[in-house]
TrEMBL record, chain A:
Record-linked Pfam families: Thiolase_C_1, Thiolase_N
GO BP term, pick one: isoprenoid biosynthetic process
Gene3D superfamilies per the UniProt record, alphabetical: 3.40.47.10
Name of this chain's protein: Acetyl-CoA acetyltransferase
NCBIfam families assigned: PRK06064.1 (NF004720), PRK12578.1 (NF009228)
Record domain Thiolase N-terminal: where: 11-223
Top EC group: transferase
Alphabetized UniProt keyword annotations: Acyltransferase, Isoprene biosynthesis, Transferase
Enzyme Commission numbers on file: 2.3.1.9
Thiolase C-terminal domain mapped to chain residues: 240-386
Alphabetical list of CDD domains matching this protein: SCP-x_thiolase
TrEMBL record, chain B:
Domain ChsH2 C-terminal OB-fold: 71-134
InterPro entries to which the protein is assigned, alphabetical: ChsH2_C, ChsH2_Znr, NA-bd_OB-fold, Thioester_dehydratase-like
Native source organism of the sequence: Pyrobaculum oguniense (strain DSM 13380 / JCM 10595 / TE7)
Alphabetical list of SUPFAM superfamilies matching this protein: Nucleic acid-binding proteins
Protein name: Nucleic-acid-binding protein containing a Zn-ribbon
Entry-linked Pfam families: OB_ChsH2_C, zf-ChsH2
All copies of domain ChsH2 rubredoxin-like zinc ribbon, residue ranges: 34-70
Length: 387, 151
């Protein structure tokens, strides 16, 4: 297997973006990523387009996107894995280069979510996993799925609504420092606790927003890194992936996501690192409880100690491990197909030390981790990056 | 109250041509389950070869490539493992009151999802015993988990 580097990244402003179509939006990230790498579409061998697309009017989105971003006649490969689409797109690109099929790949994730209303969005998201045996009867929604994990975690480990609120406070703080975030304001614990219930104990301010957005990464082989004279390549050191049954009633334990534990184990092994080596991470905080459980499943702390980690402020930059210091899904936003690549965008900037002040994680080992989950945990991807 | 600052860049829009999906879902291989609900019974399938119980029921056992399954009725009592009260309701459920979704482990270890009665998140607790019943809501037979500690 050949080594693969991230040589360019781009990300649009996340948020409500009724000023652009999906294709126009995608170009914002692709243009930035190509310029960042110093290459053009002519240098790219194939494109991978990540889009969940279930809310869009463009039902076969990869072709119009690929054409608009100037990639005709090369590509596209379309990828869909619900909310984990972004890191799956990265993985497909990685495999194309690692196997020798391509030298340079463009992976772009894009999502327009705000073209339909919120009840429609909830009904689409609620169909993730298994429509017939869950949504059809019980009207399960994405927040409801995570809320089931929240009540189980609360009952077993004494996790409280305040612990979850602290995650929102942290991620909104970083969102307030990120000019590309959907939410750029801070919140207090009291505001989170008083916000309206969505799926108790999950409240509005525990939830990631419904966002439009796009992110892209240019991947390259070692030969291409030399050819294009990339001075700070960020290497993909290991990718782990796993799944679990999408049927919630067939899961063994509602306080942990098996898919994330297995994916993390695989990624750490491939990268030859331990969880304690990770200095900056972007984890899948679709809801605040998900970040607390991710601390545990990724091995940053032992099972049940996630609430303590956030209560001690150890996941701010300068703490034990800096987590979601771009605002995370919670505040930066969660445009499904873009989310995983938006993590790669942020972590690449972190590893190149292009952030400043409180937005830059202090680095010694230059090791970062991205964690992207589909639905309520049935599929998990973990990517380790090194400078 | 902190100042709210969020991204909302709006422009003029036009309406798409509407597209309505209404699917015909095949139930032939799980027919007994659907009929059972009408009689107040909840059926699972069991692989005659390996004994694995499938719930939701499935017609094929992927463990040992067998489709020789038998129907077994599930026990009526269990313990609540997790629950949530859904306030933000999806399209299709917007005309019902906020509902509590729960997952219970039954006496034989099988887990089922259902709507919890009463729909009171202050009273319902993980670990409470529940009794399974069936009710008809909007022409659909719904499994209810009646919380025996808070009636």
């Amino acid at each position: 297997m050949r080594r693969v580097a991230v040589i360019g990244v781009g990300q649009s402003l996340y948020g409500v973006r009724s000023d652009v179509t999906m294709q126009e939006l995608a170009w914002e990230a692709v243009k930035e990523a190509l310029e960042d790498a110093g290459v053009t579409q002519r240098d790219v061998d194939i494109s991978v387009v990540g889009n969940v697309g279930t809310r869009g009017y463009e039902l076969m989105p990869a072709q119009p996107v690929n054409d608009y971003i100037g990639m005709t006649p090369k590509g596209p490969i379309r990828v869909e894995m619900a909310c984990a689409t972004g890191l799956v797109a990265l993985t497909v690109g990685y495999n194309l280069i690692a196997s020798g099929s391509a030298e340079v790949v463009l992976a772009v994730g894009v999502e327009k979510m705000t073209e339909v209303d919120t009840p429609t969005s909830l009904a689409v998201g609620g169909r993730a996993g298994n429509y017939l045996w869950e949504f059809h009867f019980y009207g399960t929604t994405m927040p409801a799925g995570y809320a089931l994990y929240a009540t189980a975690h609360m009952a077993k480990f004494g996790t409280t609504e305040e612990h979850m609120a602290l995650v929102a406070v942290k991620n909104h703080y970083y969102g307030s420092l990120n000019p590309k975030a959907h939410f750029q304001h801070t919140v207090t614990v009291e505001e989170v606790l008083k916000s309206r219930p969505i799926a108790w104990p999950i409240k509005l301010l525990d939830s990631s927003p419904i966002s439009d957005g796009t992110a892209a990464a240019i991947l390259a082989s070692e030969d291409a890194v030399r050819k294009y004279k990339i001075d700070t390549p960020v290497w993909i050191a290991g990718i782990g992936y796993a799944n679990d049954t999408p049927l919630l009633t067939r899961r063994k334990d509602y306080t942990t996501f098996q898919a994330t534990r297995l994916a993390a184990e695989m990624a750490y092994k491939k990268a030859g690192i331990e969880p304690r080596d990770v200095e900056v991470a972007n984890v899948h905080d679709a809801f605040t409880i998900a970040e607390i459980i991710a601390y545990e499943d990724l091995g940053f702390v032992k099972k049940g100690e996630g609430p303590k980690l956030i209560a001690e402020g150890q996941t701010y930059a300068g703490g034990k491990v800096a987590v979601n210091i771009d605002g995370g899904l919670k505040a930066k936003g969660h445009p499904l197909g873009a989310t995983g690549l938006g993590m790669i965008y942020e972590l690449t900037k972190q590893l190149r030390e292009e952030r400043s002040g409180p937005r830059q994680a202090p680095l010694k080992k230059y090791i970062a981790l991205a964690h992207n989950v589909a639905g309520v945990g049935p599929v998990s991807y973990v990517v380790v990056l090194r400078r | 109250m902190s100042t709210r600052k969020y991204t909302k860049i709006e422009g003029p829009t036009i309406d798409s041509v509407p597209l309505i999906y209404k699917h015909k879902i095949p139930i032939q291989k799980t027919y007994k389950f659907w009929e059972g609900l009408k009689e107040g019974k909840i059926f699972a399938t069991r692989c005659k070869k390996c004994g694995r119980i499938y719930f939701p029921p499935q017609a094929d056992c992927s463990d040992d490539f067998s489709s020789d399954m038998e129907w077994v009725e599930l026990p009526k009592f269990g313990v609540l493992e997790a629950f949530t009260k859904v306030y933000a309701r999806p399209q299709g459920f917007d005309d019902v009151d906020p509902y509590v979704i729960g997952i219970a482990t039954l006496e034989n270890g099988v887990r089922v999802m259902g709507w919890v009665d009463p729909p009171d998140e202050k009273c319902v607790k993980v670990g409470n015993r529940v009794e399974l019943t069936i009710r008809v809501i909007k022409d659909r037979h719904i499994i209810y988990l009646r919380d025996l500690s808070c009636t």
